[in-house]
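Model the whole thing, not chain by chain.
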Amino acid sequence: MPDFVGSVDQGTTSTRFMVFDHGGNVIAAHQLEHEQILPQAGWVEHNPVEIWERTSSVIQTALGKAGLVSSDLAALGITNQRETTVVWNKRTGRPYYNAIVWQDTRTDRIASALEAQGHGDTIRHKAGLPPATYFSGGKIKWILDNVDGVREAAERGEALFGNTDSWLLWRLTGGSHGGVHVTDVTNASRTMLMNLETLDWDDELLSLFGIPRQMLPEIVPSSSPEPYGMTLADGPLGGEVPLTGALGDQQAATVGQVCFAPGEAKNTYGTGNFMLINTGTDIVRSKSGLLTTVAYKLGDADAVYALEGSIAVTGSAVQWLRDQLGIISGAAQSEVLARQVEDNGGVYFVPAFSGLFAPHWRSDARGAIVGLSRFNTNAHVARATLEAICYQSRDVVEAMEADSGVHLEVLKVDGGITANNLCMQIQADVLGVDVVKPVVAETTALGAAYAAGLAVGFWKDTDELRKNWLEDKRWQPQWSDEQRQTGHAQWSKAVSRTLDWVDVS
Ligand code: ADP
């Protein structure tokens, strides 16, 4: 058995390749950003060809830097930005349109029409998701309706849909020369097209969106002893490696944080924030604005489900301070600037740039900075941005506690923003519980490696993975209860000011 497992992490802002050893330690890594294409307000696209090129390049560079070859890898896993939608031609391999990214809101009218026509409850019940711009179904429909020739090609079976997991699996296994067209069950659970009970595409849901079944990938387990396919000798790995693990990024982080028991939860702080709580083999339907989703399916074992609170804008609000306002030079600067003041000076920032996701699901909301007075400075705005990340997470924790009946004792965290000590301290203060971070913070890539490695026996079982989880940092609450309550009440008032801002009917 080779000594390592490889993992491709195709994220929203960048793609990375990481190699892990048996202890879950990072042996090699390389990462490259790709372009964020913003053709008009609310639209966000990526170039799928650029994503494939970046993927090839990070694999080659990471292996090269560490002096590794394909035969050092026992298996390869893949994890990806979920919901982002690619439609391509099976013969030429060319995408018909740019990838429509999960943050893109162009399908707001498709989503609100489904609700207005009374289909919302069907979608919520069958797919576990509210009709929203976030998920793939509306994005596929938009491409079918707006790009010349795609609907006909889809009906002929020539146009294929995939999230970026499918797109990369297809490319890695040969593309137009016999590439496999599959998606893992966690990615499929984010389309509004898969039935959570049957774990198959659902005819009623497909007909609501007018999507031909033949363009959809085959749904496969997240960890599969029967490989989805093999990488090619003349591909970026330069050899045949079995592809045996695939998970959407947040589900991968749940696995990477070893949340294998019901009630175990993690929160990932990246472009957006995503909190998942394992609910075991029960499909728990949310009454509090959370999503019901598949957490993972390991081989033939029953699928394990999760409740998820997705927050659209957290790290991207920090990017906004950098790119649009120009008040910081890099993400880490947000901490330096926010530390210049002792508190938010009364300022609350609700970054509802693409509406509000969990637990509100309001596509008519838009961002607001409220409570400003002449006294306030950039530093208050920076602090309010970090607080917004934490308050949005608190709203999700409350929804999770209401739905699951589990009281969170400690929050496991990961993702880029966890490098920000002030933000993590505020998170502990706002929640009133400890916040802990593992030594290997790259839980997303690690989770996909775990899924791939479990399939080939590189790791024996999930108990073995638990031993790899080691605590790195812990933040403990310092605020008084009164401070916590007052702060949250003001935050809630700020949220109410952002609602009903744009007309989406
Ligand atoms: P993704 O996987 O979604 O691309 P990452 O986990 O790589 O995200 O995190 C990147 C995000 O984290 C960016 O939006 C960036 O603005 C934010 N970020 C990174 N470092 C910091 C920091 N020190 N303070 C605040 N935000 C940060």
